[in-house]
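Researcher: Next sequence.
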Amino acid sequence: MPMISIVDDDTWARDGIRVLIESLGYDASMFASAQEFLESGFITETACLVTDLQMQGLSGLDLQRRLLDQGHSVPTIFVTAYPDEVRRKQAFDAGAIGFFSKPLDERSFVECLTFAVDLGHKPNMD
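Model: Next structure:
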């Protein structure tokens, strides 16, 4: 089953996204910060990353850059309570799959998530 990693410093938002993702049958891992995710060892297992844009410490954009710099091309969906066209463009220019305002439009988010998981899911060839 594909793993979805959720990075958001807001406990309520993180848990709400987890419930939605698990209701779709996916496994979800939650992280309270970008640094926690980077140190987790879950990067290579992550089929899709859902990250908040603005967080304490590293932002979602910082996380996206670090992953790319380390050679990890993880399909990424941004969520934010503070949509900003400049940051939206930066996210998509760096390869983001989606960019959503909180509260989420669940239908659009689920469609985007399904697409992202299909891109990032690497079947086990053993």
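Model: Helices lie at 11-23, 34-38, 60-69, 85-93, 106-120. The chain has one domain: 3-120.
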